[in-house]
Amino acid sequence: MEERGKGTPQGGVISPLLANLFLHYAFDAWITEEYPHIPFERYADDIICHCKSQRQAKWLHARIEERFARCKLALNREKTTTVYCKDDDRRGDYPNQKFDFLGFTFRPRRAKDRKGKYFVSFLPAVSNKAAKAMRQAMRKLGLHRRSHSDLEDLARLINPVTRGWINYYGSYYRSALYPVCEHLDLTLARWATRKFKRFRGRFGKAVKWLRGIRQEQPGLFSHWRLMGASAGR
Asked: Of 26, 92, 101, 176, which has the fewest CB atoms closer than 10 Å, so is most exposed?
C-alpha cells in the first residue's frame, strides 16, 4: 500500500467533508471578507459568482485564480466559464447563455406574468443530464418485464421515486419534466404488451388503453398527477 503524504483518500467517507471544510476557508470565508458585494453560491466544488458586467467577471476570475494558487488549488478550465444571463432586461448577444447547476439548466426561457403577458426570463429547469439519469433509473427497474405485476404494483414501486423527482425538479418550470413522464408512460405501455395477450404486437392499442386508465385514475401514478390532462396528448 502506498503511503499518502497529502490529500485525502479517493472515495473515503471523510474526503467530501474535509474538501468542503477546506473550500469554506479557501473560498467562502475569503470572498465574503474581501468582496462582500459579490453574491455567490457553492455546492461541494461547484461555485457560481454573480457579476454585474463582463469586465467585473474577468477581474474576479483572475482574483479567484490567484487565491486558489495560494491555496494549492486550480480552477477546472473546462468547466470554468462566464455566462450571460440573457432576459428581457439584458438583451446583449454573447455566445454562452446557459449553465448547469445542481441538476438544473439555467438559460433564457419564455415565462408569463400575472397579467398573462409573455416575456423572456433567465430560469432553471431540469437539465438534460438529470433527465437522462431519471430515464436510466427507470430502465434499471425493468418495468416492462414485470408481467407478473399489475398497475397498482408498479405504482407502489415507482411512485416514491418519481414523487421525489417531481418535488425537486418540479420546483421550477415543471413542464420540462413532461418528456420524462411521457417516456415513463411509453415504458408502461410496453409492460402492457407483455402483460396482456390482446396487446401483443399492438403497441398503439396499449398506449390508448393506458390513456383510458389515466383518465379514470389520474392519481394512480405521481407523474400522472403532475401532467394532468395534458399527459400523453
From this structure: 92
